[in-house]
Amino acid sequence: MIFRSKLAKVSLATIAILGICSTTLSADTLGEVQKQGFVKCGVDGGLPGFSEVGSDGIYKGIDVDLCRAVAAGVLGDAKKVKYIALNAKERLTALQSGEIDILSRNTTWTQTRDTTLGLNFTGVTYYDGQGFMVNKKLGVKSAKELDGASICLQTGTTTELNVADYFRTNKMKYKLVSYDTNDQVLKGYESGRCDVLTSDQSQLYGLRIKLAQPDDSIVLPEIISKEPLGPVVRQGDDKWFDIVKWTSYAMITAEEKGVTSANVDAMLKSDDPDIKRLLGSEGQMGENLGLKKDFAYNIVKQVGNYGESFEKTVGMGSPLKIARGYNALWNKGGLQYAPPFR
Amino acid sequence: MLTLLRNQKVRGILFQLLTVIGLVAFLWYIGVNTLTNIEQRGIQTGFGFLNGTAGFGIDQSPIAYTEENTHGRVFIVGLLNTLIIAMAGIVFATLLGLLIGVLRLSKNWLISTLARGYIDFFRNIPLLLQILFWYNVVLRAMPSPKQSINFFDMFFVNNRGLYFPLPDYNTTFFAMVASLGIALIGIVALNMWANKRKEESGEDFAVVPYAFGLLVLLPIVAYFLSGANLHFSIPELKGFNFKGGKTLSPEFLALTFALTIYTATFIAEAVRSGIEAVSHGQKEAAVSLGLSPYQSLKFVVMPQAIRIAIPPIINQYLNLIKNSSLATAVGYPEIVTVFAGTSLNQVGQAVEIISMTMLVYLTISLLVSAFLNWFNHKMKIKER
Questions:
Q1: Residues 145-184 of B with CB under 8 A from A
Q2: Contact B238 A188 (CB under 8 A)
């Protein structure tokens, strides 16, 4: 049979395409990560302290450290991460569609996001709350004086919902100016398009140091919302969910037990059974997760414990100088708490 | 069987049938596959979210909108804003394009070179860059609200936008609007009568002065008849921003400006090519008939040029409508920004929302092209 007409070729091609397009996404993220040899991690990429490309071209920040910790635990090398910079609008869809393995991008854990999007939050890596930043020249001392102000914010966030609620409850009016990325938000604020910049408080401090004149702006005292930020994974892959969850817990437990990246080798000889189980010289903790015995050792050795990571990225060792506050360990007046390694 | 396949007609039908079956199966497969995947991941489906409370604010809305309205209303606000920006862009781009297109053919070297330079420059820079450029220029160049540029204490320009007074909607206002409408209808009728008279008797009738008189006099009469009670709400600086009057935001201005300047270059080229396509003999014939240059342009060149230029101009209108979705770069709240952006992020149902948005552009574009094709058909030379 000879295919003379163009139509005949087209129909054959259609049938061929049908045969190719019959793959569905598998739910074995761990297997895929091990096969591809790196973790695909969705981050902000432009937020000081959380995830930012440093002057040496390497990603840094507390969100980035979580990605590095997972890579260290799963693959034994914290450098085996492929970072994908996402804006607030893209991030959840990117995770849903399988473009990334973990979303670690200062994402607020809310009921709606947890239940309707096919996603799971693995915990809280940073307890935050929403605040306002204004220019000192306006002479505003409290968020209650912001009636009629123009407000710049990043669209696709819980921020715009909180602002709406706050101004409505306080019977104030506002003008909304919403942008796609934090950089644009900052540009809008700096050029005077709006009077107020609102975001999570940690981000306000991070954005403030990017301003030409950081001292001209102040962060108002009010915190108008609860913003528990944490990593997100796809629903339906409990194994991967457990791995990311216990990676954070390993870092918190390490801080609680005083295990740091500097002393982790010495700690291997510790007599404390908790430390022994954590670092894998006793028990089956790594195997339970489908990982190697020494997964937590690798995390602490290469990334550090939670406290180290916090101080280096957003705390006193960083330009942001944010106090631990709610993010201190549970036995030091904060909320960071890990279930036991047992 | 084999002989049947050798029959070209049968074979043609068979392959068409196979293609249609293949295509339907392919689309059906994609649909089912998507739905299964979505279900497996526990993502919500359906259009129930349209009735859910949006919870976020939108700065510019032609209809009443508050945070308590639904995502369905957000969709409508976005749609209206898209239509507004598209309409503004089309009107200004057409005017500017016509002007530049005619100037481009000017015998004056300086004028035609300038017009050509304009076209070559703006046509070859990506639209997104132009939008961002104008937006940042507008923002950086303008003063803060307290140092606004002030025109007669009525018009204000600052980095929050352009403020101008708006009349209160009372009887006088509506009477004047109605009288303007009547004046316009009157002008159309007058024009038709003048054309008819010219065809019958060949005598010219100067419509313009009468039209102008109607446009000015009728509203003035209406103003006094309805009690001379026209009030303007004038923008005033109160607190952080101006209140009262009407505002055009920097986002809107930058977007309209960029879309106009960019699309006008293509329209200008369409106009120029239309005029140049009219054969030289036609112009010579017009001259030898004793028509003045203006008459020859109006009665001989333009009617033919417009016919040639309409199809490419339709394409530019459609491009402009689709390009308006670049508004998302500067945060103008049209449908892609608020509905396919913010709403999508709050509810997370990408498949439904993106399909709805695509359908909107498809519908608008098809309607516009259907209308303009009809118009084109009407304008076409009727060959009998």
A1: 159-160
A2: no
State the greatest distance between any 2 C-alpha atoms of chain B, in Å, as a whole number: 90
The secondary structure of A129-189 as a DSSP string is -EEEEEEGGG---SGGG-TTEEEEEESSSHHHHHHHHHHHHTT--EEEEEESSHHHHHHHH
Q: Which of residues 81-100 of A touch B (CB under 8 A)?
A: 88-89, 92-93, 96
Q: pLDDT digit string (tens) for A97-144?
A: 889 999 999 899 999 889 888 899 999 999 999 999 998 888 888 888
- Residues 337-356 of chain B with CB under 8 A from chain A are 337, 341-342, 344-348, 350
Q: Does B57 touch chain A if contact means CB atoms closer than 8 Å?
A: yes
Q: Report pLDDT digits (tens) over B279-294.
A: 889 888 998 998 888 8
Residue A20 touches partner B, C-beta closer than 8 Å: no
CATH level 2 (architecture), domain B96-168+231-315: Orthogonal Bundle (1.10)
**Ordered domains of chain A (ranges, CATH):** 29-127+228-332 (3.40.190.10), 130-225 (3.40.190.10)
ipTM of the complex: 0.70
B279: tokens are 């054969």
Percent composition of chain A: helix, strand, coil (DSSP 3-state, to 5): 40, 20, 40
SS3 state of residue B67: coil
- Taking CA atoms, B293 is separated from A116, B199, B297, B303, in Å, by 70, 21, 6, 14
How many CB pairs lie under 8 A apart between chains A and B? Answer: 146
Rounded-to-integer distance, Cα B288 and Cα A128, Å? 83
